[in-house]
Amino acid sequence: MPTRVDLAGARGLARTDILPARALLRCEAQSQGAACGGSTGGYDRRDEPGHRRQTMERKMRLLGTARSPFAWKVRVALEEKRIPYVYVVAPPADPTSDVSRHNPLGQIPVLVCDDGTAIYDSPVIVEYVDGLAHSPKLIPDDFAARIAVKRWQALGDGVVEATVLLSRDERQPAAARQGADWSRNQQAKIERALTWMEQDLGGRAFCYGDEFTLADIACGVALEYLDRALPRLRWRQSFEALAAHAERLTSRASFRAGLPEIT
What we know:
The chain has a six-stranded mixed sheet. A hairpin with a 5-residue loop joins strand 5 (110-112) and strand 6. It has helices spanning 21-29, 69-81, 99-102, 122-132, 143-170, 180-201, 214-229, 240-250, 253-256; strands spanning 3-8, 15-19, 61-64, 85-89, 110-112, 118-119. Helix content is 45%, strand content 10%.
């Protein structure tokens, strides 16, 4: 069965190819810096700020799906850190995927490192990614600052989880849905989280401190995914500061890489 491989060679300009599994293995066997699955398109770091060659400089693979917001969060972090990676679309329910072999829980995202070590889930992966390159720093070293940033991540992830559950339920036939009380509870989680985010953000340019951090990644992913999966909520009308911040974040090239599908 073909394996979908996203050759993340440039921030916001990643190339996606459909390759047989044997072609992926062939790519991984190539020497450092060799192009895989097609030409590099002539891109070079010097051509555009933040641009990376479409190459297999490293063999690190991120397993996810086209619809996963948590895989998207990891991809944003990888793009911000300018770390080359290969994105492999591997639905956990597909028996031919490697997800269960790398993660006993059978969940995505999973980051498979050069030496075969598997890291999961998204908060752990992002922390690992942040440690691979010194700059930019996504998670502060200072204890209080680190906890504050991770608290933002917890809220963002919680909004995503509630959004996934609610949007998935709304796509079900009426007879199979969870019920009005359950739906109100999920929506209330989202609204409480957005209220806290709005108040904490205030008039700042970033979620925490004076620089872009993991807090902004988690916030931006949650807000964009909420926009796309549950447009009926129209949250922007009630949370103007968050709406402005969402515009700033989603204009970054890192956020445009791997934007999840909504169906």
